[in-house]
Write a structure and sequence with these properties.
globular; 0% strand; mainly alpha
Length: 179
């Protein structure tokens, strides 16, 4: 089929380190699969391939949107929740790293900069919550007890992270009030 051909072309592009072209082919394969009303399992395969290349290409928000569609199409699949949780967690870490540099100079920030920093931390709080929700779903769906416990531990760490983020937001609010 055309979708198989596009998927093969994407794999060849990946082998040649042309991830942009691979993404293009996988998007075409996914869109063609939808138009042709392909079997749900095949459609899920195309979505998962596209998710992987979007993530590889650093298009995390697009990958998240696709991840949510994947979960809707297969709500019992632990791997999909795990991928989503890890992706939210990666974005969270990136945002936290940026924000911590500003937080370190909190005393020299003006009100607008403080408000912007607060928004970043509020966004981090949402990312931490979404990552945590996905890992809790993994914990519930995973049949292997050891793996299930790992997901639960990750969710616990994210709860601590959420508390830290709330504390940073309070610190910023206090600094704003002092201005």
């Amino acid at each position: 089929s055309l979708t198989d051909l596009l998927t093969i072309k994407a794999e060849i592009a990946k082998l040649n380190d042309d991830f942009g072209k691979a993404e293009e082919y996988l998007k075409q394969a996914y869109e063609t699969a939808i138009i042709n009303k392909e079997d749900p399992k095949k459609l899920t395969f195309h979505m998962a391939s596209l998710f992987d290349i979007l993530f590889t290409n650093g298009k995390k928000n697009e990958a998240l949107d696709l991840s949510e569609k994947l979960i809707e199409s297969d709500p019992e699949n632990v791997l999909l929740y795990s991928n989503a949780g890890a992706l939210y967690q990666n974005i969270l870490i990136d945002e936290q790293t940026k924000a911590s540099k500003s937080l370190a100079r909190i005393h020299s920030l003006n009100e607008q900069e403080l408000e912007e920093l607060k928004l970043i931390y509020q966004n981090c709080l949402e990312l931490a919550q979404k990552a945590r929700e996905n890992f809790l779903m993994c914990n519930q769906l995973e049949l292997d007890e050891v793996q299930s416990e790992l997901f639960y531990n990750e969710a616990k760490k994210l709860k601590i992270t959420k508390n830290d983020l709330k504390s940073y937001i309070r610190k910023i609010d206090k600094k704003i009030d002092e201005l």
